[in-house]
Amino acid sequence: MKHVIVVEDEVFMREELEEIFQKAGYRTSSITEFSHTADSILQMEAGLVLLDINLPGASGFQICQELKQKRALPILVLTSRDQLRDELHALGLGADEFLTKPCRKERLLARAANLLRRYEGREHLLEGPGFLLDQQTYTLYIHGQSAILPKNQGKLLETFLLHRGETLSKETLCTALWGTAEYIDENALQVNLTRLKKNMKNFGIQQQIVFVRGEGYQLADSE
Fold first, then answer.
1. Residue-wise pLDDT tens digits, 136-191
2. If you write DSSP's letter for every residue of 101-157 in order, what string do you get?
3. How far apart are CA 178 and CA 59, in angstroms?
4. If we measure between CA atoms, which residue out of 34, 25, 35, 26 comes closest to residue 5?
5. How many alpha carbons lie under 13 Å from residue 49 in its C-beta half-sphere?
6. How far is the C-alpha of 61 from the C-alpha of 55, rounded, in Å?
């Protein structure tokens, strides 16, 4: 039974949405506390996130971005905001669908079912800009093709994707590769980073690993 997480601060709307999905055979949960919302959702093993934009604390835009940085998770934005710029912004951040309230339940359920079908088998995939990485096999999916990365390169790319926007220390990267940072082998780390950078360029990934002096490494957009 698919699990739908309803992220909606208006009580009556939240209850109505849960009832709609429960009657359609889904298991539902709701977010009622809106601090660290993205982390709460990730802990709930969601099958689909139904996300409002106007929320107390972090906006739905921010929550969408945080979720998409960490997991290949279907997100359907359902909001009373009907401006085109809001829809384009949400889709640009990775939202999969954008519907405005009020919305007929038949349309909502159809879009939700379609999203769930599209995401079948993608539970272990991380999303990058224009590509997917399988966390179990380190298979890279990009431009309609797939390739298996060597284990160490896969571990590094996975770590960067899980910490996008962060600068990662050598200790963090060594721990990701070898399970410990007690003995840092900078030469071995550099070899693995260099090979990953080369493969990322060859595959046409529109991001690059950059060195931040005195801090470590970061996955950044190519200039």
1. 899 988 887 889 999 999 999 999 998 888 899 999 999 999 988 777 778 899 99
2. SS--HHHHHHHHHHHHHHTTT-TTEEEETTEEEETTT-EEEETTEEEEPPHHHHHHH
3. 38
4. 26
5. 32
6. 10
